[in-house]
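user: can you give me the structure for this one chain? tokens are fine.
assistant: on it. calling the predictor now.
[tool input]
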Amino acid sequence: MASTITMAPVQTIAATPNAAPARPTSPAQYASQAADKTLGAPTTATPVSTSGDADAARSAAVLNYAQGKVGQQDGNGECYTLADNALRAAGAKSAPDYGKITPTADYKWGKSVPLDGSKPGDILQFKDYKNTTKTTQEDGSWQTETQTRPHHTAVVVDNDGKGNITVLEQNVPHGGETKTTVLHFGNGTTKGEDGSTTTSKTTGSVKAYHPEAQETK
């Protein structure tokens, strides 16, 4: 199921020149409070039904493979390669089983599922994703965190159901080794317990896929 955010691989953090010295708290720590919406969907994640132990084992195998590559470059280092190898190691279908592979293709990785219902071992496919989270403190100082994935693939580690999905990815930045990243998908403004205000805006599109078993011949 495609999720288009109303209105690949670089992550940058920017701060206003006029901002007061930043407090130790990062805008990312307030992201869960900022996520009033997850790509326009309810903030409570909907569990994805599975077919039983074999399905759960397949998802676990995908995740375990990707976690085992943390701090390393998997294959040729492309983001596609990490997902492709993880699925194949788990005995699951991969993108070539669903269509032609080209450098800019909108890859399919399995059964389409709602982004806010994605779970560990699922695969995310990004196109022109951009999230900007601005946190303003009571004293007027502020920080802005921007995450972008123009054309990218990642493996889901955790979904908090509040607009924050932890993923395993590589080639971010270009040539980067496999790492764990929290990506934000919120749209809205919330108030933090310390009096800070956080505004999060997400644009682009992200598709979530649940691994499917390879067909036996």
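assistant: here you go. Residues 2-15+26-210 form one domain. The mean pLDDT is 81.
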